[in-house]
Amino acid sequence: MNEQRIREIANQASDHAENTVEYFPDTEDGLDYPAKMMKVRDLKFAELIVKECALQCNHNDDMDRILEYFGVEE
To answer: What separation in angstroms does the CA of 6 have from each of 3, 14, 45, 49?
Structure first.
């Protein structure tokens, strides 16, 4: 397993969460700030992992099928 690349992707996901989730003390969606951060981070991490895997495909059809299956836009 390429642990270094996974750490890089995890850091990208954390940075994304920090830059997109705004702190509001209310919980209009039922999630407090830490839960919102984790949700956004985890979803971005999954998206980045799927994109990384799709990039390893030899054929564009395979790559497109993987991205479509997981609902990830290029």
So the answer is: 5, 12, 9, 8
> Are 17 and 40 a contacting pair, CB within 8 Å?
yes
CA dist 3 and 27 (Å) reads 35
Domain region containing 46: 3-19+32-70
Structural domain total, the chain = 1
Give me the tens of pLDDT residue by residue for the chain, a chain 74 residues long.
789 999 999 999 999 999 999 877 666 678 888 999 999 999 999 999 999 999 988 888 889 999 999 999 87
Is 59 among the domain residues? yes
